[in-house]
Specification:
- By secondary structure, the chain is an alpha/beta fold.
- It has a single domain (about 10-295), classed as 3-Layer(aba) Sandwich (Rossmann fold), CATH 3.40.50.1110.
- It has helices at about 10-20, 85-95, 140-155, 160-165, 175-180, 190, 195-215, 235, 245-270, 280-290, and strands at about 25-30, 35, 40-45, 170, 220-225, 275-280.
- Strands 3-4-5-6 form a 4-stranded parallel sheet, sandwiched between helices. A two-stranded antiparallel ribbon has the order 1-2.
- Helix 7 runs parallel beside helix 9 (about 245-270).
- This is Zinc finger protein.
- Belongs to the 'GDSL' lipolytic enzyme family.
- One of its GO terms (molecular function) is hydrolase activity.
- InterPro entries: GDSL, GDSL_esterase/lipase, SGNH_hydro_sf, SGNH_plant_lipase-like.
Length: about 300
């Protein structure tokens, strides 16, 4: 299977450098086959962009376990908010890992290669996404990871701490804290915080959450930034001419900038903390501005 990396010029180079830090190749066994993997496991935290089924059995309005979702996925709909593979699925394959199972379904040896804790409608703040009823906020996702660690230790899965230090922790949070919190008319958030203060609130909470993962043994982080929120379908649908909302794009910009500064600070203050930041905002801007170079046409 071929992948087009033109959307990932710099960040993917950083990503490769990150995972090859120890110059080790770990052999992972899946079924009867053996293949090389760059890391022992990948643990995933996030929202609908990378959820692969954790909301399926929740009393939630944020589900994707039905057609046309999964129309190009082998086996049909799984709970991925995609026609096929998600970004983290592709990364898992590139790392030589099996597709990461959702926390709600993972068991036994599957856990040794990592777990996906992401949940559609989830946010950095616990009250984000409540309009969708059931969802698993980032704080609870980390608690679920703690439960996984206890299971791994109880099953005698080798040196868990050493494996964690070499594993990838992919985190993509923040979009819903705007789309399904700050911008929701039935939330009072917009009246409580101006854009800069809200970005500060989110970043402070995000900092605590990433530090919590670090204290649990995580060392190698891949952080997905928020994209151009003003260009997503739900925002475009509110525009009379179908154009992106520059107001929403500017609203999210302080958080975008804060996260980059936060990661630099964590890298300086936490021994062994390493990160690769995926600048989805600028990637998306490049795609919109140069769509034909990617073999695509963008219509508004």
């Amino acid at each position: 299977m071929a992948y087009n990396f033109r959307l990932f010029p710099l960040c993917f180079l950083l990503f490769v450098l990150l995972v090859n830090n120890n110059n080790n190749v770990i052999l992972c066994q899946e079924g009867s086959g053996t293949r090389s993997a760059l890391v022992p496991a990948m643990f995933i935290f996030g929202d609908s962009l990378i959820d692969n089924g954790n909301n399926n059995n929740l009393a939630s309005l944020a589900k994707a376990n039905y057609l046309p979702y999964g129309i190009d996925f082998n086996g049909g709909p799984t709970g991925r908010f995609s026609n096929g593979l998600t970004m983290v699925d592709v990364i898992a394959e590139l790392l030589g890992l099996p597709l990461t199972p959702p926390y709600s379904q993972a068991s036994g040896d599957q856990m040794r290669f990592g777990i996906n804790y992401a949940s559609a409608a989830a946010g950095i703040l616990d009250n984000t996404g409540r309009n969708f009823v059931g969802r698993i906020p980032f704080n609870q996702q980390i608690t679920n990871f703690e439960s996984t660690l206890n299971q791994l230790r109880n099953t005698g899965a080798g040196d868990v701490e050493e494996a964690l230090a070499k594993s990838i922790f992919f985190v993509g949070m923040g979009s819903n804290d705007y789309l399904n919190n700050y911008l929701m008319p039935n939330y009072n958030t917009k009246n409580q915080y101006n854009p800069q203060d809200y970005a500060t609130l989110l970043t402070q909470q995000y900092n605590q959450q990433l530090t919590r993962l670090y204290n649990l043994g995580a060392r190698k982080f891949v952080i997905g930034g928020v994209g151009l929120m003003g260009c997503i379908p739900s925002i475009l649908a509110q525009s009379q001419n179908g154009a992106c909302s520059e107001e929403v794009n500017q609203l999210v910009l302080p958080f975008h900038n804060n996260v980059r500064s936060m990661l630099t600070s964590l890298n300086s203050n936490l021994p062994g903390f390493r990160f690769s930041y995926i600048d989805i905002r600028n990637m998306f801007q490049d795609l919109l501005a140069n769509s034909r170079q990617y073999g695509k046409s963008i219509y508004y």
